[in-house]
Amino acid sequence: MHAKTFVLLGALISFSAISNAETYYVSVRGSDGDSGTESQPWRSLAKAAGAVRAGDVVFVGGGVYKEVLKPSRSGTAEAWIEFVAKPGEIAIIDGTGVKLDSSNKGLVFFSGSVAYVRVRGFEVRNCNNQGGTSRDPIGVGFFDDTHHIEVVDCRIHSISTDTEDFTPKGISIEGRAHDITIRGGSVSRISTTESEGNAHAIAVYGEKSTPVDNVTIAGVEMFDLTLGTSESLVFNGNVTNFAALGNTIHHSNNIGIDVIGFEGVGPSGLDQARNGVIADNVVYNISTLKNKAYEEFSAAGIYVDGGRDCVIERNRVFNCDIGVELASENSNGVTSGITVRDNLVWRNSIGGILLGGYDRRRGATDDCVIANNTFFENDTEEFQIGEVNIRYRTNNNVFVNNIFNAGAQGYLLTFPKEFADSTGNTFNGNGYFTSSRTPGWQWQGQWSSSWAAFKRDSRQEDAGFFVDPQFAGTPDEEGGLALLPGSLLIDAGLAQANDTARLDVAGNPRVTGSGIDIGAFELPGEVLLVKVNTLELTNSDTSGRAISLLPAIADLAGLRLEYSTNGVDWISIAENTDVGWTLSNDVRIEMLAGGTSIVDSRPVTAGLYRAVTGQ
């Protein structure tokens, strides 16, 4: 009885708080001496920030506000405080002439224990180190113990410095902040003009013994970034349970997404970003070639530098210096437990995926899984790196169900002799192909130019393939690297844990047929039951070939067996209709010990078969 009374009382309190919520207005034509109503709006953001209570909403009208928005009051889980740009109007927070110091740490910033606040729809611009500013130029900042804060659909740009003493950041999340969400909008024109300077579009830094926890960056476009020696989107130090989801990062002169450990940002033993998800992002045109700090190709689209226990899935990475890199630049650091799966990585300058240190002073890359990715025509600058590269201190990593399709240089896998102390790495169930020239595999310095020689020399790929994947088109076309129905890589992958619980790069169920497809795409809308290119003769008719169908599916109405000479153009040779099987000439059904078989005695010498339903 007491428990029920307590719950009801709590519900009444929450309802009361929400029902007393107010709506206020701010306008460049208002006055802070007015009431804050729509007809008598306030003039300043500061007035509104100091007046709101839980559940209140502040609509800010169009115009330029040369001041800091510093929410100082908290909402509740049931009644958030909201600052919203008035629909149809452009509310601009402009830092021209605004001095940042210990009281004003960003043009929009949250400090102390402020919580349950949402900021939506603002343009935040023009913050630099001029005019006596004594702090890093920051567009939106989170400090101390702030939590449960959302920044939604804001456009942040023109945050800069001309000295290496400052690090401009479009968004900075630090302290012990947790449950922070940045959703939608954009961050652009973040820059340092110093060759050894630093800048970030979005930086998440865990510097305390309590981690920065549960940060989500979703659907943000980051572009036109001049970053010096730093990264576009970074999770660094004591950061846990983070997510980068559905962002677009492009035209940056340094790394796209970086997960960092062992740089001395976090406390000893906790200085490692971990337990993160990097999914559904598009990262392109990332290069340090014109970056004054490098002036060479070195930037990865997605980089894990000392992080651990993260999933990198369903991303599209192209036209970067490096597609994906798993390494640790600190000699005592180890990148470990990273799963890279279901990604498309194509036409990057140096290579598709690189693991391990580039010299003996670097850390290790251990116990990572690279599964069901499609790597296509990487190493466009012909560095002789190829689609996948194994380097120093790369141990016990698993490569399974990937497509490695080399471009003009023909290099599929490189594992130079000087890195031969890397051990325990396994490759199996992967599909390889190049049509440009003789293929090349390198294993501990031994070069192989044939599939048979590579398998023999490396003792890898018992279940692998060297075969044309038969892509649906070019990577510039939507779905261009999907497999055509006749591909021998369909349903040919090796089963992995949780295959059926995940999606392919296009968002389709990862397993739709009798097995998982090799590469990033799963062929949807079609059940492939048989797939052969070496045709077996039957015992009863040596002039034909038999394709056995599983007994449980052979009687399915609508089941159709099709034949192709090229895997593109298919003809039906047998179909199970409502009235029974309809067969082409010289095709018949036999009941053999293994179940129902189709025997094809037509005068053909080679070809492919598939069984399909529902079409």
- Classification by helices and strands: mainly beta
Q: Report the helical percentage.
A: under 10%
Query: What's the structural domain tally?
Result: 4
Q: What is the approximate shape?
A: globular
Uncertain stretches: 1-17, 526-543
Count of strand segments:
52
Radius of gyration: 29 Å
Strand content: 35-45%
Number of helices: 4
Largest sheet: 15 strands, parallel
Mean pLDDT: 88
Q: State the distance separating the first and last CA atoms.
A: 61 Å
How are the SSEs ordered, and which strands pair?
Elements lengths: L1 H18 L3 E4 L18 H7 L5 E4 L2 E3 L15 E5 L5 E4 L13 E3 L4 E6 L2 E5 L10 E5 L4 E6 L2 E7 L7 E5 L4 E6 L2 E7 L7 E7 L5 E7 L2 E6 L6 E5 L1 E2 L2 E3 L2 E5 L4 E4 L16 E3 L2 E5 L13 E6 L5 E3 L2 E5 L1 E6 L6 E3 L2 E3 L2 E3 L4 E5 L8 E3 L2 E3 L2 E3 L11 E3 L3 E2 L2 E3 L2 E3 L5 E4 L11 E3 L2 E3 L6 E4 L2 E3 L2 H8 L6 E2 L78 E4 L2 H4 L5 E5 L6 E7 L2 E4 L3 E6 L2 E6 L7 E5 L3
Parallel strand pairs: 1-2, 2-4, 3-5, 4-7, 5-8, 6-9, 7-10, 8-11, 9-12, 10-13, 11-14, 12-15, 13-16, 14-17, 15-18, 16-19, 16-20, 17-21, 18-22, 20-23, 21-24, 22-25, 23-26, 24-27, 25-28, 26-30, 27-31, 28-32, 29-33, 30-34, 31-35, 32-36, 33-37, 34-38, 35-39, 36-40, 38-41, 39-42, 40-43, 42-45
Antiparallel strand pairs: 43-44, 46-51, 47-48, 47-52, 48-49, 50-51
What does this structure look like?
The strands form 6 sheets. The chain has a 15-stranded parallel sheet that branches. Strands 3-5-8-11-14-17-21-24-27-31-35-39-42-45 form a 14-stranded parallel sheet, with no helix packed on it. A 13-stranded mixed sheet has the order 6-9-12-15-18-22-25-28-32-36-40-43-44, with helices on one face. It is mainly β. The protein has 4 helices and 52 strands.
